[in-house]
Each structure stands twice: as structure tokens, then as C-alpha cells.
Amino acid sequence: MRGALGGPRVLLRRLREVMAEPVSAQDRLDKIVVLIAANMVAEVCSVYVLRVDQTLELYATEGLNRDAVHLTVLSVDEGLVGHVAREAESLALLDAQSHPEFSYRPETGEEVYNSFLGVPILRGGNTLGVLVVQNRARRTYTEEEIEALQTTAMVLAEMIASGELTALAKPGAEPAVRRPLHLKGVALADGLGLGHVVLHEPRIKVTNVIADDVVKEASRLDAAIGKLRHSIDLMLEDDGLSKAGEHRDILEAYRMFAHDRGWMHKMREAVLSGLTAEGAVERVQSDTRARMMRASDPYLRERLHDLDDLANRLLRELIGRARGMEREAMPENAIIVARNMSPAALLDYDRSNIRGLVLEEGGTTSHVTIVARALGIAAVGQVENAAGLADQGDPVIVDGQNGEVHLRPPGDVEEAYAEKVRFRARRQAQYAALRTRPSVTKDGVHVDLNLNAGLLVDLPHIAETGAAGIGLFRTELQFMIASAFPRISEQLKLYRAVLDAAGERPVTFRTLDIGGDKVLPYMRTVEEENPALGWRAIRLGLDRPGLLRSQMRALLRAGAGRELRVMFPMVAAVDEFDRAKALVERELTHLRRHGHGLPERVYVGAMVEVPSLLFQLDEILSRADFLSVGSNDLVQFLYAADRANMRVADRFDPLSPPALRAFRMVAEAGIRHGKPVTLCGELASRPLEAVALAALGYRSLSVSPAAIGPVKATLLETDVSAARKVLLPLLEDRTGAADPRAALTKFARDCGLPL
Q1: Measured over all CA atoms, what is the biggest interatomic distance in the chain, rounded to whole angstroms?
Q2: ∠ at Cα 650 (649, 651), nearest 5°?
Q3: How confident is the model at residue 302, as a pLDDT?
């Protein structure tokens, strides 16, 4: 390395010796800047640390005025140092003072230095500070020198991240690596969770970054890359992925990244500069992450997740740790933080310890969200870079009501939320006092409040909430969390347990709603362009009658001696319902023939989720015993807005006139035919929306367990006839200016309803 004494390997070796010395944090920093300046033949070497107030403080220097240490503070918008921190990219200048962002600070005495080289101190793509060298002479810094300084910055990053420098900081000016963060997202499941971070896919922590034997480390890197590529090839050769489709496309993208020459070259260069194989992977991925996080192209930002995952896989290969095998002991108050996860993955955790869930993705109607609500876990989704900003064990607050996450919260915020938790506990006690009170509105209208459920863990909520019954039991959740197809005996056991827990209360079982985005891990999937509009629910059941018949047999046997309510999802045509109902009759005949006990009565219903059924209501009600509106899918299909796509999922309001007119059509058809109609989508779990549904004529709602109390408290104070007078004229408005939500909100406020 031109101009350097001994080169980068000598620098790293000496650096490791300094890191091992039993000295104070300030002494260690002072020795590091002296060592770097000597090795790079630079008159100046300085370390700036990013503080919680997003300013940069001079923590150590060789060559500048030492009295300026801990006194010089720069904005991230100020000077060349601020530029490096802001852009998270190295900056090498022959004539620094001619750069438009050059800023002179007289207390440092740096006016005589012309050449400037600054590199960001990065960890996980996040800037922690800036490392700078300067020379009086106009000097061109080589790629090798820049590489050496970047490698040294990695060591400083771990020093900062460890908290070693915190003791040097003034109160309120601590290093930003541990700064409190207020992150905004989307509220998924109501509740407040105070606890500590548990990363669902923990990052591999690289503790040894300086190599003893560069040749050996290069060999280890090459071997790990080979294993990684081989594992991806094996996945692509799997029979289940042999056909073209989304899963194969993802793996093909993985393979493309794994064979990317630029990525490999950067890691090998990092090893040759003196890093361990693990350090090289961490260094290259941190640099890549820093650049891609600042990219404006959404495609590049989405690819960041792929590269993060690939780097983590490579690190696992290097340390010989199987993916997902290790899991540290969970704290008593665990907040799970993940990019995304399946319902099965969430249920793998000890649920008694989970207080919250934070996702980088996840929508309000995704299945992991539904399970989180069932478990009473506060959840927030769409929190950008949550898994990258959080460290294992960090204190965190999840506000599932307002869609906010407080990472490493300051004491006053933590105390404020602790008081909110105490207030919510008192409020829940008030709701509990309503448990035995009939759900009758102020003007005497009875509205049954039922539970949405799908797991054994939901069953105690029936008694706890005083629910009228289970309006929707999602039978597919048992299939989604199982590792193999549940046997009839396993299904029978679950269905009996549900009916036993409900006692005299009615339970409505929805038959398997799989396909589309509900993929069973053990069932071969069919790739479709638009899975939500494809082969799913009753369509799959009718085409695979053995699947539907086995479930019906288990349900009918479980209901022996009592009433059984079964409904079919995604019915789009009356003929589909006729065929499904005939299958029920066939199974009843089979059970009679073999001497099995039968239900006292079987009620067979259909879910109204597909808009085509809105125009067959009279026909379907002449055949069905009841209807249940699935508001999640019905609104999705009405507006052609994928509820899992956050770009459009919240674009349309379910309290808009078109959606409310559709809901009214179903309620009025039920009244006309004398058949019960329930609404069991997430819509009914919100008090204001529940008032609207009662005004439209719904006398049975099925909601999440946590919503029973708030919805009942609101309905008890509601005059439904008055709400109808506010709402119904708006549905007749043809100007396009009607705003039912605003009108109902004003009505609720004027009436003092507890929303």
C-alpha cells in the first residue's frame, strides 16, 4: 500500500493488540487513531461518533487540536464528515477545501490539511460514526488504503455497538447506536406490549473480524459459498418447485445473487485485506445494505431482503449452524420482531411469554395477524427495517392501537406506557363486568356478539367474554400449523373440544378455506397468476372431494347428539352450494349405514364473499339455512384491491356507500326469507363499524375475542333507530359526496358513545 507502513494486515494485527489491552475506552480510541495515522502516513486521523440527537461528536484525534475532543460537534448536514455520515459512502478528496460541502471549524486547527479520506462506521447498514484521515499534501488515496480504513471502521463499529463509549458521553448525547427510536407502522392487533426484543431470525453476530491466516480464511469463504450454491441448487431441483412459479422465481433470484461475481469479488477482496471470512461477509453486506437503504428504486429496496437473507445463510454455513435450529431462552415479556412470519412460526413460540409482534411486512387481514389477535398479542406491521434496527434483548414497546413501536424507549415514555397498560387493565375490568349483561342496545335491539376462533387457545375466551357463541371457527388453521395432513381422528378431537367448550352456545364451523395465500406446507401447490381469484376454498374442496368428505365426516361425528352448524366459504354460484350440500347428505348416509351417532340437526350455510352471490341471494337463501358475510374478502373483491397488498389494501373504506349497500342487500335478503345472517369479518370488531352494521339490520356479529368488550360497551349505549336515520339516507345519495364514516363519527361523538 503506497505510503503506508506495513500495509493493512499489519494495521489489523496491531489493532487487534490494542483492542485486547486492559485500558479505558478513551485511551483505546486515542491509541487507535495514532496507530491508523502512523500506518497510513497521515498527519491526521479522527473518529466522529453519531449521537442520539443525530449530530457527530469528535471522540478522538491524532493531528488536530486535542482540546477539541468532545467539544466539536457537527450536524449531519454540515461539512465533509456530515456528508460521509449522511450518504453512508466513503469520500476521498485531493483538495478538500474546494469541495462545496467543506466546513471549517477553527477550534480543530485543520485549515492546513488538503487531502481528505472519510469512511462511514457502519453496522447492519446503519451509520454509527465517521473515520477520517487527512494530509497536508495533495494526495490521492488508493483503493487499498480506502479498503484498510473501511475494515478498521468495522472494528470501531463493534466497539461503539458494545456500549463501551457510552461512559464517555454526556447525558442526552450518547452514541446513536443505542438511541431511542420511534417507529411508525400499521396497527394489526390492538393492545400494548412492553418487553424485550426477540429476533425471529437472529442475525449472526460476527465477533472476530481480524484474520490470523488470510489464505485459510479465503479457503473457508470459497467452501462456504460452494455449500450455499449447492443448497440453493438442491431446493431448485425439488419436485415441488420443479415447475415455473413464484417460489421458483425467488430461488432463481437467490441463485443469481449467489453467483454474482461482484458480490463474491468484494468479499474475497475484504478477506485479502485481512478480515476473517465472517468479517468479510458482514463488511460487504453492511456496505450494500447502507447503499440500498438509501436507494429510491423500490425494486432495489425489495432486493435488500434477499441479500440480507443470503448473507445470513452464508454466515450460517461459515459457523456451521443450521438455519433456525437455535433459539435463545425467551424473556418473560418477549416482543417478536421479524420481516414476516407464518401463523405456524408464531405458534412455535411459548405463547405465555409473548407480549407483542413487530413485522416489516404483514397486513391487517394476513393470517399471522389473525392468529396474533386470537392470542391477544399487540401487533404492528409495515415497520421499515425493524429487524435491522433492533438488537436481541432491546427494550421495546408495541402500541397495537396506534401502530407505533418505541425501540429502546426513554424512561418517561416507558412510564407513560406503563400507566396506559394499567389504564387498559382497569378498562378491561369494566368490560369484564359487562360479561353477563345481554347485548341489547339503548332502544331494545338485541345484537348477538359471537367469537371468531380457530385454535384451542381461543376456547377459554368464550366464557371469559360472555360471547353468545362462536360465529366463525376457521378450521384451516389446524391444517396450516400442522407438519402433516391432520388425520380424521385429529380433526374429530379438535371439533369435539370446540363443541364441548361452547356447551349450549352455537358454533359455526367454516370448512377448509385453503389455497390462494393459505398454503399448506405439506400439500403440493398450484402456482396461479391471481391466487386470491383462483383455486381455493370450496372450489378446491369440490375438485378434491376426498379432502372435503374427510372433514365433513369428522365434523358430523363430533356433532353427534347436538346441533351442528357448517358453512362453505367462497361460494360464487348456487350450483356450488348444491354440490357441497349433497356431499353433506352423502356423509350423513354413510354414518347412518355404519351405526355412528348423528347430530340432532345440521344447519348448512354459505359465506357471502364473492360479489356474484349478491345477485343470487334469493336463490341461495331458498337452499341455505343461514348466511355469513365475510367482509374481508367481499370488500377486497368489490374494489379489486388485494387485502394483502399494502399499496391498495387501505385505499377503499369499508364504510363507503358501495360496501355498505352490499352489506345491506344481504341483511335485507335474510329478513325477507326469515333466515339468520351474521357478519364475521374483521370489520365487526371495530365499535363504529359495529354501530353501522346494527343500523343496516345485522343482529348477529362475530368478532375477535378482544373486541367483545369494546363493541358491547358501544352497542349498549347506541340508539340503533337514530343511527339508521343518520346512515340510510347517505346510502341513497347519488352525488358521490356522501361520507358515512364522518357522519357516524359525529353521531357517536354527539351521543357520547365509547368508541
Answers
A1: 100
A2: 95
A3: 56
Three cell numbers, residue 734: 347519488
In this structure, the strands spanning 448-453 and 334-338 are unpaired
- Parallel/antiparallel/unpaired status of strands 395-399 and 192-199: antiparallel
Identify which of 636, 723, 624, 729 has the alpha carbon closest to the alpha carbon of residue 677: 624
226: nearest Cα among 293, 363, 318? 318
Spatial distance between the Cα atoms of 343 and 517, rounded to a whole number of angstroms? 12
CB contact at 8 A, 275 and 283: yes
Torsion (CA) 45, 50, 56, 62 in degrees, nearest 10: -20
Catalytic residue (one of 367, 406, 590, 596) = 367
Strand partners, 92: 117
H-assigned helices in 616-732: 617-621, 631-639, 657-673, 687-696, 708-716, 720-732
Alpha-carbon distance of 260 to 254, in angstroms, equals 10
Q: Is 680 a catalytic residue?
A: yes
CB contact at 8 A, 747 and 694: no
| pLDDT value of residue 247 | 44
Q: Which residues is 118 bridged to in the sheet?
A: 91, 132
pLDDT at 239: 46
The pLDDT assigned to 245 comes to 43
Residues of the chain with pLDDT under 70: 1-9, 203, 235-254, 293-306, 321-329, 342, 344, 364-367, 481-483, 515-529, 531-532, 643-644, 646, 649
Helix axis angle for 740-751 and 687-696, nearest 10°, is 100
Q: Is 340 helix (H, G, I), strand (E, B) or coil?
A: coil
Joined together, the cell numbers standing for residue 416 give 407513560
How far is residue 494 from each of residues 454, 455, 458, 487, 501, measured CA to CA in Å?
10, 9, 12, 11, 11
Mean pLDDT of the chain: 86
Closest CA to 546 of 523, 572, 527, 563: 523
Question: Element (H or E) spanning 450, and its range?
Answer: strand 448-453
* SS3 track for 160-197: HHCCCCHHHCCCCCCEHHHCCEEEECEEEECCEEEEEE
The whole-number pLDDT of residue 324 equals 43
Residues 6+ apart with CB under 8 A from 486: 478, 479, 494
Q: Which of 83, 406, 461, 680 is catalytic?
A: 680
Q: Give yes or no for a contact between 663 and 683, defined as CB atoms under 8 angstroms apart.
A: no
Spell out the SS3 assignment of 7-22. Answer: HHHHHHHHHHHHHHCC
Q: How many other CB atoms are there within 10 angstroms of residue 258's CB atom?
A: 20
Residue reference for cell 393470517: 367
